[in-house]
Amino acid sequence: MVDQELVERVQQGDKRAFDVLVLKYQHRLIKLISGYIRDQSEVQDVAQEAFIKAYRALPKFRGDSAFYTWLYRIAINTAKNYLVSQGRKPRMLDIDDETMGGLPASCPELSDIATPERLLQRDEVEEAIFSAIDELPEDLRVAVTLRELEGLSYGEIAEVMECPIGTVRSRIFRARESINDRLGGLLRN
Fold it and tell me: Which residues lie closer than 8 Å to 94 by C-beta, 6 or more apart?
């Protein structure tokens, strides 16, 4: 079913329709929140809290943005608020090969035979990518993460970040440029 139909059913009192939305988006939300919180039990708690907040706010949802974009914004704010309440800062994002779509696909020169030297080189590139993303200013890090890892469109990112699409494009360009600058030496070796 289309999200909008499910939202309308929830707004009319059908609680089972919200269960469908939870099942549809729970894994994506957990993955998103894991970018901010390391402990998986805390991630589960924050995801549950985000869904509760969304359920309570759903009567006010007007559909100006896609449901997932709206839910995404609630989840990010819930994760950040949780960290603040715990006296912590958001952790640097950990990105694994699965999230990246597999390093060899993005670096064909590393996909040859898995020799110890190649594995070491792959690990160095992977570490450099993690480090480069972690060191980006938050606005750039969030924009490039939403685009490259979450697969959101520029329009969806603009809604989540509450800024014009041109700003999103600029942030993603600057983030990619910064990451490429950091990786340039490693990939040329």
Answer: 34, 35, 38, 130
Question: How would DSSP label each residue in the chain?
Answer: --HHHHHHHHHTT-HHHHHHHHHHHHHHHHHHHHTT---HHHHHHHHHHHHHHHHHHGGG---SS-HHHHHHHHHHHHHHHHHHHTT-PPPPPP--TTTTT-HHHH-GGG-S---HHHHHHHHHHHHHHHHHHHTS-HHHHHHHHHHHTS---HHHHHHHHTS-HHHHHHHHHHHHHHHHHHHHHHHH-
Query: Residue 90: its pLDDT value, please?
Result: 52
User: Looking at 13-17, 120-124, 174-178, which range is the least confident one?
Assistant: 120-124
Q: Which domains does the chain have, with CATH numbers?
A: 3-85 (1.10.1740.10), 103-188 (1.10.10.10)
* pTM of model > 0.70: no
Whole-number pLDDT of residue 115: 67
* Mean pLDDT on 53-59: 92
Exposure letters 25-47 (e unless 16+ CB within 10 A, then b): beebbbebbbbbbeeeebbeebb
pLDDT value for 109: 41
Cβ neighbors of 139 (< 8 A, separation 6 or more) are 161, 171
Nearby residues of 98 by Cβ (< 8 Å), 6 or more positions away = none
